[in-house]
Specification:
By secondary structure, this protein is α/β, with parallel strands linked by helices. It contains seven helices and seven strands, in the order ααααβαβαββαβββ. It starts with a helix and ends with a strand.
């Protein structure tokens, strides 16, 4: 039987705007515009500059982003100052057809200062079964606020553990993976996300 949260994302038709404005406002969505808390940078610029400062690099593979939301991280890298990740190749993997389409619209819109993202590609696939060859990624794999959305088994985040196994498989020796998630001083458990009419409702862990 398919995990309910996985089925939710696979079948998701809620617009990207409604999802991140009404159901789940991620930190990266909240800080998608230049912000004083980040010294005038966008979240994506600050995150990628920080990763570069810790030895991350795009390599030949560029950036593989798992669950990229509305595409603001990729947009920051293409149009802003993301250090060595600026204008790097970007591949996006997501189960949600609505979010995949939203990112494609954002990154291929030619009205922006640097024009469309000419090195972006999207792929509908599962984070726990990456469609990649073993040791094929020599750049960065980025999963920003994704691991809480992965399948649970008997109260344990089995999906997150499987993602770690997949990352160990696909990363080349000089590749890097960065996973972030919202947290706090509270016990692990489920969080039910709601929207006024029930659209987009799902459980995160």
């Amino acid at each position: 039987m398919e995990d309910a949260t996985r089925a939710h994302h696979r079948q998701d038709r809620l617009s990207a705007r409604r999802r991140f404005d009404e159901v789940e406002c991620t930190v990266s969505h909240l800080l998608r515009f230049p912000h004083p808390a980040l010294r005038g940078r966008r979240y994506g610029e600050a995150l990628l500059q920080g990763i570069a400062a810790r030895g991350g690099a795009p390599g030949r593979s560029g950036v593989l982003e798992i669950g990229g939301g509305t595409g603001h991280l990729a947009e920051s890298a293409w149009r802003g100052d993301a250090g060595i990740f600026t204008q790097s190749r970007w591949t996006y993997i997501d189960l949600s057809p609505a979010l995949l389409a939203a990112q494609q619209r954002r990154l291929l819109e030619a009205s922006q200062p640097r024009g469309p993202h000419r090195r972006w590609s999207g792929l509908r696939a599962d984070a726990v079964q990456l469609p990649l060859r073993t040791a094929s990624v020599d750049g960065l794999v980025l999963a920003n606020e994704v691991i809480a959305d992965l399948p649970m088994v008997e109260g344990k985040n089995a999906g997150a553990l499987q993602l770690i196994r997949e990352l160990a498989r696909v990363l080349a020796p000089d590749g890097m993976a960065v996973l972030t998630e919202f947290g706090g001083d509270f016990a692990p458990g489920s969080v039910r996300l709601l929207e006024a009419l029930g659209h987009g409702e799902h459980v995160e862990w």
